[in-house]
Write a structure and sequence with these properties.
about 240 residues; alpha+beta; Trna Endonuclease, Chain: A, domain 1; 2 domains; 5-stranded mixed beta sheet; 3-stranded antiparallel beta sheet; about 20% helix; about 20% strand; Restriction endonuclease
């Protein structure tokens, strides 16, 4: 699909954004209709209603709910890309459950090891967010990624050989303290630490992640993590 220019209102960086494509049950690809020229808005507070958008299939007319398009800017801002509303018309169908997302290729940097396309998990709940992060770590090359049934007091959501990971599924940017606590837990356990956030990071948390070499990722509701600092980019490039 054609890319749409999107400017980050925080750092004024320009991006070429390509909207994700999802599979309609009829088999046709569908994509949220982006509003060209409309400004993107930083996400500072999440609500589940705002995070989903109606999309109509042009082949069969079916109307389904899919994750609202988002863009993760390298400055740390998470942007909501404007979408044209779908006009209501007779016979529109809204399913009881949202279908699973199509495979979303995550192109690695040129030096990256060859990997198959990443198959994300659409995020509807906090546990889905941890599950999506576990899938991504497995895709990166970590083995035996474990997600405990009950979150421990240490707030470590995922464990693997040589790794612990924390997942913040809340509607606020991840604060400094959370990044520092993950780093301390990893240091005490002599393992690497990785952080995943659904709403991005506070400015001081992002800066501390760089200082402590903690890989920071942001996830959108398609379940596809994106690196937001150099340690995360290096992890995607080289693997564990």
């Amino acid at each position: 699909m054609d890319s749409v220019p999107v400017r980050c209102p925080v750092c004024r960086r320009d991006h070429a954004y390509i909207t994700p494509v999802y599979p309609c049950p009829c088999g046709s690809p569908v994509a949220p209709p982006l509003m060209r020229g409309a400004p993107a808005e930083p996400i500072t507070h999440r609500t589940w209603n705002d995070d989903w958008v109606s999309v109509r299939c042009h082949s069969c007319g079916r109307r389904d709910q899919w994750p609202h398009p988002e863009l993760c800017c390298p400055c740390g801002a998470v942007l909501r890309v404007p979408v044209r509303p779908v006009a209501t018309r007779g016979g529109a169908h809204r399913p009881a459950a949202r279908p699973a997302a199509a495979p979303v290729p995550v192109p690695p940097p040129p030096a990256a090891r060859a990997r198959p396309p990443f198959r994300p998990l659409v995020i509807r709940t906090a546990r889905d967010a941890a599950g999506a992060a576990a899938l991504y770590l497995t895709w990166l090359g970590y083995r035996d990624v474990v997600q405990p049934e009950v979150r421990p007091q240490s707030r470590i959501d995922l464990r693997a050989a040589g790794l612990i990971a924390q997942v913040d599924p809340t509607t606020r940017p991840t604060p400094l303290r959370d990044v520092e606590c993950l780093w301390l837990n990893a240091l005490n356990s002599s393992v690497a630490g990785v952080f995943f956030s659904l709403a991005g990071y506070a400015a001081d948390a992002r800066a501390r992640g760089d200082q402590l070499a903690v890989p920071l990722f942001v996830m959108d509701l398609t379940g596809t993590p994106q690196p937001v600092n150099d340690p995360a980019e290096e992890l995607v490039s080289t693997g564990p």
